[in-house]
């Protein structure tokens, strides 16, 4: 599956999803001062080989779907939220603290925390930093393509 993130001039960017044998689908991505939310999904799901929003789309669900309950993708969504929060605050939260925040977030949302460790946090954080550098270099109207 090919993901094309296009930097918009206004309040949102755009994600286009291309899958073999299916029409392209488009998702609006509200700007959030860091990489788009679905790009954070890419960093988490691709780096840790997890089934979240993007891998569900890759498996055939429509890109604009409203996610129904699914144990692993619910847990992935909580993890994405923790990484977003970390990125918004500069990306310097110690990995052990990130894991604590993740556990609290999962408990509050009644979903099981995935079994990940500090090395996983560092790997995702590195992926996010790389994507952020690439995204920052994209001009308004330009695009960043990723394969999943």
How would the blueprint of this fold be written?
Blueprint: E1 2-6, E2 12-18, E3 25-30, H1 37-48, H2 53-58, H3 71-88, H4 95-108, H5 118-136, E4 143-147
Helix pairs in contact: 1-3, 1-5, 3-4, 4-5
Could you explain how this protein is built, in words?
It is a single chain. With 148 residues, this protein is of the alpha+beta class. It has a 4-stranded antiparallel sheet with strand order 3-2-1-4, with helices on one face. It has helices at residues 37-48, 53-58, 71-88, 95-108, 118-136; strands at 2-6, 12-18, 25-30, 143-147. Helix 1 crosses helix 5 and helix 4 packs across helix 5 (118-136). It starts with a strand and ends with a strand. It has one domain (2-147).
Read across the widest sheet, the strand sequence of neighbours is 3-2-1-4
Q: What does the largest sheet look like?
A: 4 strands, antiparallel
> What is the domain total for the residues?
1
Fraction of helical residues: 40-55%
Strand content: 15-25%
Shape: globular
As a whole number of angstroms, the C-alpha radius of gyration is 15 Å
Q: Secondary-structure element order, as H and E?
A: EEEHHHHHE
Return residue spans where pLDDT drops below 50 for at least 5 consecutive residues: none
Overall mean pLDDT score? 94
Q: Count every helix, treating DSSP H or I runs of 4 or more residues as helices.
A: 5
Taking the alpha carbons of the first and last residues, their distance comes to 5 Å
- Strands, count: 4
């Amino acid at each position: 599956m090919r993901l094309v993130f296009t930097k918009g001039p206004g309040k949102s960017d755009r994600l286009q999803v291309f899958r073999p044998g299916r029409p392209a689908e488009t998702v609006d991505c509200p700007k959030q001062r860091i990489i788009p939310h679905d790009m954070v999904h890419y960093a988490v799901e691709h780096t840790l080989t997890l089934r979240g929003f993007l891998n569900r789309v890759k498996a055939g669900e429509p890109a604009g779907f409203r996610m129904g309950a699914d144990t692993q993708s619910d847990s992935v969504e909580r993890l994405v939220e923790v990484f977003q929060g970390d990125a918004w605050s500069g990306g310097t939260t110690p990995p052990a603290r990130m894991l604590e925040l993740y556990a609290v977030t999962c408990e509050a949302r009644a979903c099981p925390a995935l079994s990940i460790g500090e090395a996983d946090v560092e790997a995702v954080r590195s992926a996010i930093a790389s994507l952020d550098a690439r995204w920052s270099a994209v001009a308004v109207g330009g695009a960043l393509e990723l394969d999943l």
